[in-house]
Structures are given as structure tokens and as C-alpha cells.
Write a structure and sequence with these properties.
Layout lengths: L27 E5 L4 E2 L6 H5 L3 H4 L7 E5 H4 L4 E2 L5 H9 L1 E7 L2 E14 L2 E8 L4 E5 L4 E2 L1
Parallel strand pairs: 2-4
Antiparallel strand pairs: 1-3, 5-6, 5-9, 6-7, 7-8
This protein binds zinc ion (2 copies).
Length: 142
């Protein structure tokens, strides 16, 4: 098994195309032409709200393209919002209580996004399931 080769004819573990993404990054990510970051989600708030470089330059007609993370990991940086959990890392996230459907659970807070006056979205991870939730201020306690 140790000399198995991938579809690029390289030894498993030595091929950058077949490299597994780190924790918190999806195998398929999203980019726009001219953008300087990649996104875990095609519907990332930062893409939509113009915080991606290409969008901030008014080039907002570019389609959002799915691509393998391993193919662009050297040329693009992770988005501050949809890659917040990866950027913070397990040690960088703040412990919190999160209200999921009326039940308070122990969760990890990754980042907050300001959606407008008095409106904030908190990105919270449930460490037991690995699922990410977007919660309002009153649904998160520190
Ligand atoms: Zn390969
Ligand atoms: Zn993003």
C-alpha cells in the first residue's frame, strides 16, 4: 500500500494536487477571477458584500467558480469570514454558550460580522458535530 500512486502518477502524500485541505477548509472552494481570496462557501457574505478584492474594485460581474483547494492554496488567501474557523484554529476560538433551537450548548466562537447598525452575525462552531451556526447576539453568551 505504501507505494500507491494518485491519478497524477505521484506517490500518495507527495502530490500537491491531491493534498487534503487543513481542518476548517473545504476540499472544493470558490474563487472569482481577479479576487485575492478563496471561499469555503459560494454564498459567503464577504463575496456578496463586496469585501473580496475583486468585488471592491467593482468587478462584480465575475462568476463564482468552484475549484479544488489544493490547486489555489498557494496563490489565494483564505477569506476572513468563511474561513474564520480555520484562521482562528481550535486554540484561537473563544468558548461560549450558543442557543440552538432553544437549547444552550457549549460552543466555540470564531468571528462576528457586522451586518449593519445593531445587527451582528456570530459564527459559532459546535465542536461535537463540527457544524457551523450563524447566531444573533442574544443567542450567544460569553
Ligand atoms: Zn495527485
Ligand atoms: Zn468567504
Amino acid at each position: 500500500m505504501s507505494n500507491q500512486r494518485c491519478l497524477h502518477d505521484l506517490l500518495i502524500g507527495q502530490c500537491s494536487h491531491c493534498m487534503k485541505p487543513p481542518w476548517g477548509i473545504n476540499p472544493i472552494v470558490y474563487t472569482t477571477k481577479g479576487g485575492d481570496s478563496f471561499h469555503n462557501w459560494s454564498e459567503c457574505n464577504y463575496l456578496a458584500s463586496g469585501q473580496d478584492y475583486a468585488y471592491s474594485q467593482g468587478m462584480n460581474n465575475h462568476p463564482i467558480n468552484p475549484i479544488q483547494w489544493s490547486a489555489i492554496q498557494d496563490s489565494r488567501s483564505p477569506c476572513q469570514w468563511c474561513c474564520a474557523i480555520y484562521l482562528a484554529g481550535t486554540d484561537g476560538m473563544k468558548k461560549c454558550k450558543a442557543n440552538l433551537d432553544g437549547v444552550w450548548i457549549d460552543a466555540l466562537f470564531a468571528r462576528a460580522a457586522y451586518e449593519g447598525p445593531k445587527q451582528k452575525t456570530n459564527q459559532v462552531l459546535d465542536p461535537k458535530t463540527g457544524l457551523v451556526y450563524f447566531l444573533a447576539n442574544e443567542e450567544v453568551k460569553f
